[in-house]
Amino acid sequence: MISLAPISYYLILSAVLFTIGVVGFCVRKNPLVMFMSVEIMLNAANLTFVAFSRYLNIIDGQVIVFFIMAVAAAEVVVGLAIIVAIFRLRASIDVDEVNALRG
Fold first, then answer.
1. What domains can you pick out in the chain, each with its CATH number?
2. Phi and psi dihedrals of 21, rounded to 5?
3. Rounded Cα gap, residues 19 and 44, in angstroms
């Protein structure tokens, strides 16, 4: 029988991924990198939910992950649409330059 890795391994990996996402979001000024950092943080939360779901032998965590993935997909669509609109208007997507969205 194949033994599974302890839950602590998954939680440590999740914490590392979440930390990478937070650092990437705070340090970088490119909105695309910031969106990728948010996605890394969401995937870290998903990993935690799945690890606990597997450890406790319940499916609730995996159902929550499904909804998080749906919300993340919607967030990417809306965020990229906003970034494209700003780029067409100003020809730059630097976060420091775009301080107000005015129509």
1. 7-90 (1.10.287.3510)
2. -65, -45
3. 9
> What's the alpha-carbon Rg for the chain, to the nearest Å?
17
pTM above 0.70, yes or no: yes
User: Which token pair is 14?
Assistant: 């999740």
The contacts of residue 34 (CB under 8 Å, 6+ apart) are 24, 25, 28, 95
Structure token digits, residue 60 = 């609730």
Rounded to the nearest 10 degrees, the angle between the axes of helix 31-56 and helix 60-90 is 180
Beta carbons within 8 Å of 16's beta carbon, 6+ residues apart: none
Q: How many CA atoms lie within 13 A of 78 on its CB side?
A: 6
Alpha-carbon distance 46 to 39, whole Å? 10
Please, what is the average pLDDT of the chain? 87
Residue 30 dihedral angles phi and psi, to the nearest 5°: -85, 125
- Report the C-alpha gap between 55 and 81 in whole angstroms: 39
